Structure formats: C-alpha cells, structure tokens
Amino acid sequence: MEKITVSDQKLLTDITEFGWHVVKVMEEGENPRFAYSVGLYDSFGHPEIIMVGLKFDLLHLLINNIGEEIRNGKQYTPGKFYAEILDDFNCLMLKMEKKYYSDYMGYANWYYKRQNKDFPVLQCIYPTVKGIYPWEKDWPNEIKNLQPILGNIK
Fold first, then answer.
1. Nearest partner of 34 among 51, 11, 48, judged by Cα
2. How far is CA 87 from CA 1, 37, 91, 109, in A?
3. Which of 43, 44, 63, 98 has its CA 20 to 30 A from that of 72?
4. Has residue 150 been placed in a domain?
5. What is the model's pLDDT at position 1?
6. Which domain covers residue 92, as residue numbers?
7. CA 88 to each of CA 12, 60, 113: distance values in angstroms, whole numbers, following the listed order
8. β-bridge partners, 138
C-alpha cells in the first residue's frame, strides 16, 4: 500500500476540488525556480503547463490564470503565441520534450504514474521586457540560465 503524505493529499485534494494543483520548485545552483500544473490533463484533457524563472507568486498566479482559462474551454496550442497570459507580452506555448520530465515534472510523474497515464506538457515562454526571447541572439548573457527551452523551437 502506497503511503500518502500531507503534500500528496493536498495535491490530490486540489485536483479534485479545483481541477489542478500548482507545484513550485526552488532554484538550485544554475537551475532557476519554476512551477507547473498537475491535473489539467486529467481534469480537462489539456496539457500541463510549466513556467520557469519568474518569482513564485507570479508563476503561481499565471498558471492559475491559465488553468481558469482552460476550465472555461480555452485550448493552448504548441507553437502559438498568446498575448493575454502576461500583460503586454506575447508568450509562446512550446511542447515540452519527454526527456525533461524527470528533471522538471516530478509530482506530475508521480500523479500520472499512479493512473498508468501518459501526459503532455506545454512550456509557457515569455520574453524580456524588451521583447527578446531566450532563443534569440540578443537574449542577455546575465540571465542566460533563467529560462531553459524544454522543447524544439521550429
């Protein structure tokens, strides 16, 4: 029998009550902080969402806002830019490659493994205040590790 911790129970309760849970992960060494959803795929058939590099309060707010949009029927598509996620900035939804799941999607892996389910993830990528994206040559060197790209930019 699997032992369920208090954190596990909170995640399961949030998914049941709200449709998703937001997991926040502290920065470690060169790796920036990030947050991701767990439950969007199970509850709404929509890929989970991950965002990297912003402050935790903002990450949590943005993922919850995206979750509310999804609950209301919005579908985010990989490779498309969205202006309404972060005021005045176009955010790109990028399909996350499975090779990054073990490093970034720990609790989601645990949740879906319990159901023998595979799940997709979209990384929401935002630009600098000057509108520069992490794959562009003008991306500032001082924040080069702030937003790793977890999928293929075509």
1. 51
2. 46, 21, 10, 31
3. 98
4. no
5. 63
6. 6-143
7. 34, 19, 38
8. none
